Amino acid sequence: MAKMQQSYVRQEMVQDLPPPPASSGFVGWARRSLFSSISNSILTIVAALFVVWAGYHLFHFFILDAVFVAEDGSACKLKPGACWAFIWDRMDFFIYGFFPKDPYWASTDIFFVSAFMEYWRINVLFVIGLALLVPLLIPSVPGKLINALLFFIPFPILVIVLLNGGWFGLELVPTEKWGGLTVTLIIGLVGIVASLPIGIVLALGRQSKLPAIKTLCVVFIEIWRAVPLITVLFMASVMLPLFVPENMTIDKLLRALIGVALFNSAYMAEVVRGGLQALPRGQYEAASALGLNYWKSMGFIILPQALKHVIPGIVNTFIALFKDTSLVAIVGIFDLLRTVQNAAGNDLNWGAPTTSVTGYIFAAAMFWVFCFSMSRYSMFMERRLETGHKR
Amino acid sequence: MATQDVAPRRESPKTSFFNDPKVRGLLYQVIVIAALVVFVAFIWQNTLANLAKQNKTTGFDFLWDTSGFDVLFSLIPYDRSSYYYQALLVGLLNTGLVAVIGIVLATMLGFFVGVARLSNNWLVARLATIYIELFRNIPLLLQLFFWYFAVLKSMPGVKQSYAFFEAAFLNQRGFYVPAPLPSENFWIVVLSVVIAIGAVFYLRRRARIHLEATGNRMPVVLPAIGILIVLPALAWLLSGATLDWDLPQLKGFNYQGGLTLPPEFLALVFGLTIYTSAFIAEVVRAGINSVSHGQTEAAQSLGLKDGDRLRLVIIPQAMRVIIPPLTSQYLNLTKNSSLAAFIGFPELVSVFMGTTLNQTGRAIEVVAITMLIYLTLSLGTSAFMNWYNERVRLVER
User: Mean of the pLDDT values across residues A123-139?
Assistant: First the structure.
């Protein structure tokens, strides 16, 4: 009785068992997120079958049955897949539009001529634009202010000088000859550069205590937001010429640019207003208490915070603007989409059933890359600027 | 304590005339309005001069002229000898039709995809994400072109149509579906359906009052289904009404009879539905995510059943977040239907701002009417939104 053997009481802890194989690793993950219940399993199987089916067809269309190298459309007629050779052949048109190919000063019998075609102007702009844009987007690169100023003021001027020509011995290239991705990017860039400041001014005007200014801004914003962009472009193309003195003509591209910029500035104004309204009153009062005047308090206190709040909204407006550039085709401008459509429909060399599908897929891919990267970049900036003041 | 050395209240310092905020505000407004007046007068002057130079007349009398053009698709009788105001009406109705169909389909698809994106099932959630990111980031116009030129216009010819149960046919000229041919007294059946729906709503109301008064549930679902089936069936049998179907049939080189949905219409509806549903899916996801998990737990601890928890706690709160952006998506869809001008479906912009404007040259009048219509639509929607926001606003202390 007294000699109680207590050896069966454990002295040290047993090591933890590893989790059962069915609840960890890939198997566990699959059980949790794919086969957690019968209905879930059925869903997974149906979805997987769909993925396999779609993947098989897409793989065939894009790669196995596709024509990568061909002289003309005859090879594409034989195969049911994509006609990539068409894209490759007409790439110049898709990027540069009708921009003159041959250099103005060099005769075509010089063998290195292809490197010095008039395209060099656009290429130079692409390179300068990228060189200015990339450091602007990477947060750790210093000199943001100078960089931004360079990108938003001299660069657009350079674009006009170089593309239009007529100066410094450059051949004059009228805007009717601009086209393709170049024009799409120009409209996008000008729209973005113009609509943000106009939008900010409109938003501030809408918050104004002066009734006349407030009413004007509200009317302006609501009218633009109420109508579809296509009516604005129609209006810009048929009514702007009536509005200016008769001896003055407004360039077709410029009309579209004005339309796109004003249209999007109204949307931008509403986005910015959201940011202004989200700021607590204390910020306005603090700015006044510091003795800052209206513009200083807006520029140093209110707008930096308000704009930070609405970065996603601003970028969404940019994305919508970039997608909307495709509508300028209605007033006869050859943007990326229009060049693709034109080449697929009218190029007798490439008359094959798959040409137009391939063209649209190419254009869609181009637009998608730009829009998707913009949305991802905005998410990145949002996380970076997050300072824990979320209300 | 220290003596309270209250400074005598000073007269507010005399500001110079131009530094007085009131004077300044007034001055700014006067300057802005003056600039606006000058600007408008300038435009007005130019427009009058330009119009006079082009020998153009102005006025809305053209609306009662014969249009002389035909349209592809119309809900009301319309032909070449109709008037411009009828063309306007055709366009308006077609816009309305596309908008209503697009809104219904996009809402269903969007809610489905939005819920799928939040699914516990990894594969389903991924597929929904791909769908959203793909269709959101491609311009609508490009999608319309794809559906119209690359898909519907490259359908097989009439002789090789895709047939669905020998009743509906799809070829490059459009989609041919059976048309209902109700007999003369068929309206009785339609009326009975309306009455049945009304009865179900009444039943629901009674059940709720009963529940609030006694705490007991009245059966609703089964009686409702019963009413919805029995009443129309009775009406059908007793009235002797019939509903025949006019099937499309291949006669000569084309299908005759039935209802023809032209490819322009189909492409527009497809494009608008898919594009907008991607946005609606994001709206729905944001709405559902905005209801915190604590609400679910609170509902469970109150002892609510799963269905009641969703119906009474989660969905009403999610809807408050969902409805405003959803309405603006509906408005966007309606405005985007104007892209039909690119593929030749005769809606408002295409018929009126396109053809009518080209034929009459009355740019200002046509643009004004079109913009006014869209403005009315948009302001109506925002009025509804304000009313709704007021209604569902959180009542705080």
Answer: 82
Rounded CA gap, B97 and B324, in Å?
A: 22
CA-nearest residue to B156 within chain A is A353
Nearest CA in chain A to B374: A227
In a domain, B214, yes or no: no
Choose the closest CB to B127 out of A47, A228, A244.
Answer: A47
Mean pLDDT of B374-380: 88
The pLDDT tens digits for A326-358 are: 998 888 888 888 888 888 877 777 777 788 888
Provide φ and ψ at B306, rounded to 5°: -55, -45
Q: Measured between CB atoms, which of B47, B133, B338 is closest to A243? A: B47
- Amino acid letter, residue A167: W
Q: With contact defined as beta carbons under 8 Å apart, do A229 and B374 qualify?
A: no
Quick one: DSSP state of residue B83? B
CA-nearest of A191, A277, A279 to A236 is: A191
| Among A351, A286, A273, A277, residue whose Cα is nearest residue A314 | A273
pLDDT in tens, A216-252: 999 999 889 888 998 888 888 888 888 888 777 778 8
CATH number at residue B306: 1.10.3720.10
- Pair B248, B169: CB distance under 8 Å: yes
Element (H, E) at B93: helix B84-117
B137 contact residues in A (CB cutoff 8 A):
319, 323, 367-368, 371-372, 375
Provide the pLDDT for residue B355.
84
pLDDT given for residue A217 in this prediction: 92
Query: Do A242 and B51 count as a contact with CB atoms less than 8 A apart?
Result: yes
Q: How many Cβ atoms sit within 10 Å of the Cβ of residue A50?
A: 12
Query: Is the pTM above the cut of 0.90?
Result: no
Closest CA to B337 of B178, B141, B109, B204: B141
Bridge-based pairing state of the strands B168-171 and B162-164 = antiparallel
For position B11, what pLDDT does the model report? Answer: 63
- Contact between chains at B338 and A228 (C-beta distance less than 8 A): yes
- Cβ contacts below 8 Å, chain A against chain B, sum to 157
- The three-state (H, E, C) secondary structure of B259-281, written as one string: EEECHHHHHHHHHHHHHHHHHHH
Number of CB atoms found within 10 A of residue B189's CB = 23
Based on the structure, what is the number of domains in chain B?
1
pLDDT grade for B234, boundaries at 50, 70 and 90: confident
- The pLDDT assigned to A46 comes to 92
Task: In whole angstroms, give the CA distance from residue A103 to residue A125.
Answer: 17
pLDDT digits (tens, 9 = 90+) for A8-67: 777 788 888 888 877 778 888 888 888 888 888 898 999 999 999 999 999 988 888 888
Task: Look up the domain containing B90 and give its range.
Answer: 84-159+254-392
At A72, which helix (H) or strand (E)?
A: none
Q: Look at A326 and B33 and tell me if their CB atoms are within 8 Å.
A: no
- What six digits make up the tokens of B274? 């898919």
Is B104 part of a structural domain of the chain?
yes
Asked if A243 and B46 come within 8 Å (Cβ–Cβ), the reply is yes
The pLDDT value given to residue A106: 46
How far, in Å, CA of A204 to CA of B289, rounded?
32
Q: Which residue has the higher pLDDT, B2 or B350?
A: B350
- Out of 1.10.3720.10, 3.40.50.720, 2.170.150.70, 2.160.10.10, the CATH code matching A194-333 is 1.10.3720.10
Q: Rounded to an integer, what distance in angstroms lies between the CA atom of residue A334 and that of residue A340?
A: 9
The reported pLDDT for the residue numbered A115 is 40
CB contact under 8 A, B149 and A235: no
Q: Is position B68 within any domain?
A: no
User: Percent of chain B having pLDDT more than 70?
Assistant: 95
Please report whether residue B203 resides in a domain. no
Which residue in chain B is spatially nearest to A247 when comparing CA positions? B50
Q: Are the beta carbons of B243 and B180 closer than 8 angstroms?
A: yes
Structure letter (DSSP) for residue B160: G
